[in-house]
Fold each of these.
Amino acid sequence: MEFGVATFRLATLNSLQRCKPLLGTFVEVFVQDNVSDKALVEQSNAIFKQIEQIEGLMSFHTKDSELSLINQQAHQQPVAMSQEMTEVIQQVLELSALTQGVYDVSIASQLITSGILPDHDFNIDPLASWKDIIVDNNDIYFIRPLVIDLGGIAKGYAVDKAIAAADDNCHVVVNAGGDLKMTHWQNQLVSIRVPYSKSGKVVDVAMQSAALATSGHYFLDGKVAIINAQTKQKVDQDISISVFADSCMVADALTKVAFLYEDSAAIFSAFKAKALRLDWHGEVLT
């Protein structure tokens, strides 16, 4: 996903755009305010710091992250979680319950088998599911050995935290590889890349909420990252799904729900979210 900075700039304000490799993608930060260049750099540094903190906690790839510690030990004993991890895990379990287990972060074992996630030689019970994840206050415990991957939902959460770190008067856009949030989103346009487009074709759409997340088959070299946790079948459709919501964490998770769960309308309504489907021709589907 791309965002059109030209549609966001205000002539009277100073602006800065930066990009860093984080969260397994490139994170773009655009800040604009009536302050000095130095102040804008400091503002962007604070935003990137929040993202780096969440990455350090929730990375599946990093062996010493909090998530890796949970995957290593939670089937043996309760593991104390940070407040950030607790918030994300609680959201994950809520969505798993609402979708009757179709959305399930314990599907990480299938992503390892598919070569999308690295194999850290975790102990995994093939019968384990989200129902084996027990949260008691800030402690987490697995009834059966399993591994969880927070992937996109952690990326969305990092974007939420980054926006929250910005000064109230600052105009900010954070885009983490398709997980995007704006402080001043009304009347703004974003460009969504058409799935399977080798030329980088995009479609411009109006923002409908503060956050937007898009899932589709873009850069996985033929590998499919969306798997139905109950059937273990891969979802391979020639479309992308974008979700508008107040929270980027929720928006990212709901893109997977929309792919996986046929009766998702009530869930979208509960979160006051809206979905947009785009086919490989660049047509918006109804």
Amino acid sequence: MKIDITKSDLLQPLRKVVSIISKKSVIPELENLFIEVENYEMYIKSTSLDMEIVAKIFLKKKYKKKVFSIPGKKFFDIFRFLSEKQKITIRVEKKKISIFSNGSSYTLSICKTKNFSNIELIGEKKVFFISCKKLKNLIQYTYFAIGKSDSRYYLNGMLFEIKNKEICVVATDGHRLAYFLDTIENTNIKEKFIVPRVSIMEIYKIVENSEKIVEFQIFKSSIKMSIEKLVFSFKTISMEYPKYHSVFPKNPNRFLYINCSEFKKALKRVLIISCENFQNTRFLLKKNKLEIISENFSTESAKEILNVKYIGYPIEMGFNVNYLIEIINTIKCKEIKISITNEHSSIKIQNEEEKNLLYLLMPIYL
């Protein structure tokens, strides 16, 4: 079989598919691409056992059905460095494939395909639709708070909760929490599921900042996500997520309004002096003044005094300054509002222009 194709037709879908391929897997098949050619279509698939991506490419000629598997990273790297405008021919033989382009030629071994796994899509199917732009925003503003290798496995993922034509995403590692609520149309389902961190990062890379529509098919322990010619399937975390509403501050009685840009710059300056391992920083709030104090084991110190609008009694609290910077980095506004109950309770950080987006941060004992 000889397949004629251009680099522009193959490179972009190939880049998305190979992103989940493992370079040094104990299972050799996970390093390969599974390719199926039939009629005017080519399907390219990769898997990591917990995820799989399938890209569909339209061909200019009609071909008989052919299925084969090849080393994924090598195949991608060859195409990546080929000339943009040259015609590319792929010749598929019994035990190898050959790639020809303008005097260049490469040969790759064909691997076994019988052990190539599939994500099981079992149970009742529920469907909803969301735009790429909206999905990307939901992830962009919250993913940093997902736990990393936490023993409480459910914290290593992001909660999606759908009801009343609204979609809510929640991420927390036990120290901070990110919450974002948005609307979705044309759905009446009520469902919630936890998407692992690694799958969240793949979704963020796959979706574009556009109005293209993403279809989600929800199954018992897996999700199938479709965007035009790309299908991404992944396993969900089949555990109960914590009741996050119970940690939202109740009846806060102190309120801080502060310029977002000035606050971020001050935090980055005191971070220079803070301890590398702990990054603990003291915050002293009194009438329209915020003092940020950082010290380390070398008896070095930093102190920043900012003019702010503060309503409430004086209070002293401690926070991990790096966690605070990560939250501020996601907020795009002139002024932020911080609601405080007491020195032992989490604070609520909000963009006044975006009421459906909020962050919680637990204080630390200094």
Amino acid sequence: MKQYPISNIRTLSDTIREFTLATPAWELAALTPGSHFRWLMPGEIGARRYSCVMFTAPATALTFAIKLNMAAASSQYLQSLKQGDKVSLEGPFNHFPQLIAPAEGRDVVIAGGIGVTPITGIVARLIVMGKHPECHYFTESRAQAVYATELTNLAGSSFHLHSSEGQKCDLAELLGTLQPDDRLHVCGSERLLSAVLDYCDDYQFPRQHIAFELFTTPFTKADTTEEGYEVEAAESGIRLQVAAGQSLLDALESAGLEPLYDCRRGECGVCALKVIEGDVEHRDFIMTPQEAATSGIIYPCVSHAKGCFLKLEL
């Protein structure tokens, strides 16, 4: 954990505030496109994860654009901050896969809402590599398209803004143009990401050519179960109960087990466990439906038993 003084604050829209932190150059050199930090909030608010804004590669500033919801204690804290205040951060971390970009194929970039923040670095990196990414930025309104000007300056005529007030885009039609050698970079809401992955599966576009990050808060209701179930860790000889409203990963940790994990959002694949017995309700973003049906794998940060019992190799 390290404290950083706030060197500048800008209001980008009625709900989005930008923070730039005073940072030595050697720390900026460690940032990679898609990097994020954990902001440690005071009291019982806990930690929040925010991605870096990077319009150059390498980065020249440590900047974050954060969407506020004033009903949340974390947003109230962020709204109270002023220039000169210090904030406590951990990082950088990066869960955004960096796809190798050979000469063949296009790079198509899709950002949804505040998910544009890590996308800025992806676009900057591709341009430094001599690529010409096709950028699509989906927002509710032009007023919320906070970095449209900067992305236009980077990508030129290959940048497209889609909002209810202007140009609209049929996502299925857009993804239907993808070719097997293309690469797709996506960050946005769970709804956007699910739609993208579903369409790509329908078009048989390879998952290994999709780099994505889900822009949401960990431990959402979707990660928990409405009904409890029993789990047996075969190698440890431990039996435990997953309570209603509890994630499987949390239950395993509470029982004294130490499964590996990283993102806790069903994206990175680190927490994968082998299922010996029982059916799984898959909620991860890693496997296609076809792979999930035959994999014998569960990602306990988001997935659950479909019945009342699971036996795991743990």
